[in-house]
Write a structure and sequence with these properties.
about 230 residues, 2 domains, six-stranded antiparallel β-sheet, about 35% helix, three-stranded antiparallel β-sheet, alpha+beta
């Protein structure tokens, strides 16, 4: 019984520590406090729209208006967030509106595109697989500025290169952390936690590129990206 109580106390301490870390990691950079719930919501949305350089050119491209965003990126974001991979045109349009909101005036291409095929006989669209490399595109939340109608979010972008893992059978290997300029910043262990990897990035933050993402909140409380710029 004592062991169980000790375990519960340890788990509680760990949970509180993670809560405090996530809160201070962001709010130390801003004047207006943003709650953990808001941070989680922002991070979840950005994960939905953060893509892969080898497919879309940039994981998160720069644009001054969502209607000026590269179309391959737009539709790959839609495809990434599909719950199923054979859909009607209406389902694709609904998913597009869910992610990008009413400000996006573009419609999903009716003939499909390179990574989404269209069967004229059935009127069904189907996802086509795309090849990815060993580098994972990752971002880290750095600053959040709360606005009346949304947030201005600054992110740090980096790459996690897992190539060494394909060259060994060992459970532990080195992951190279690289900037988007293909500069190797250093290495972490494959067994390191996400928190440790993020701390490594923060310790070398000036060597990574940053972007500022403008997010709007609609009347239902949903987030939609409206613009992205380099910082």
């Amino acid at each position: 019984m004592k062991k169980l109580i000790v375990i519960i106390i340890i788990l509680f301490i760990i949970f509180v520590g993670m809560y405090i870390y996530k809160q201070t990691r962001i709010t130390n950079h801003q004047n207006t406090e943003v709650s953990v719930e808001e941070i989680n919501k922002i991070e979840t949305y950005l994960q939905k729209i953060y893509m892969w350089r080898e497919i879309t050119g940039e994981a998160l491209p720069v644009f001054d208006n969502i209607n000026h965003a590269p179309e391959v990126w737009l539709w790959e974001v839609v495809k990434k967030n599909l719950e199923e991979y054979e859909l009607s045109y209406e389902q694709l349009q609904d998913k597009t509106k869910e992610i990008f909101g009413d400000e996006l005036q573009k419609e999903f291409p009716k003939d499909g595109y390179e990574y989404m095929g269209y069967d004229e006989e059935t009127g069904i669209y189907y996802a086509i697989g795309s090849g990815l490399d060993n580098q994972e595109d990752v971002f880290l939340l750095d600053k959040i500025q709360k606005q009346d109608d949304g947030y201005i979010v600054q992110i740090v972008e980096y790459l996690e290169d897992y190539s060494q893992g394909y060259e060994t059978d060992d459970a532990e290997y080195n992951i190279q952390i690289e900037s988007l300029n293909d500069e190797i910043i250093g290495e972490v262990k494959s067994t390191d936690s996400e928190t440790n990897i993020q701390q490594f990035v923060k310790d070398h933050i000036d060597r990574f590129t940053k972007k500022e993402v403008n997010l709007k909140v609609d009347e239902d409380g949903n987030l939609h990206v409206t613009s992205v710029k380099n910082v």
